[in-house]
Specification:
113 residues; alpha+beta; four-stranded antiparallel sheet; 4 helices; 4 strands; 25% strand
Length: 113
């Protein structure tokens, strides 16, 4: 599978660099993949699908080639973004798992930042 991502969303870049300023506790979505390419495609699709902020987009560094995306926003936006990310990368067959945490504790949320 060869994929190109046109007009990469700014949130993907913010998640890669860890440059988002996130202070409000909101729902959290996580998607994990066996490949870097799937994570990039999914993160871009998720950011384009809904109003979410990327907390982190981790690409295969010290995690056995796996990659994951962590995002936050209102519950409906996070659900929509996770679904869009999973659908965008589904053909590669590299999805490990996905989850949405509707109401994380403030302490848990702060650990993610």
């Amino acid at each position: 599978m060869i994929a190109a991502v046109a007009n990469i969303h700014d949130e993907l870049l913010a998640g890669l660099s860890g440059s988002n300023d996130i202070s409000q506790v909101n729902s959290v979505g996580v998607i994990e993949f066996f490949s870097v390419a799937s994570a990039v495609i999914a993160a871009d699709a998720a950011a384009k699908a809904a109003d979410v902020k990327m907390i982190e987009v981790r690409l295969a560094m010290a995690i056995g080639g796996k990659s994951f995306i962590v995002m936050t926003g209102e519950l409906s936006a996070v659900n929509a973004a996770v679904d869009a990310g999973v659908m965008a990368a589904r053909d590669a067959g590299m999805l490990i798992g996905k989850t949405v945490i509707p109401s994380p504790t403030k302490e848990f949320f702060q650990k993610l930042l």
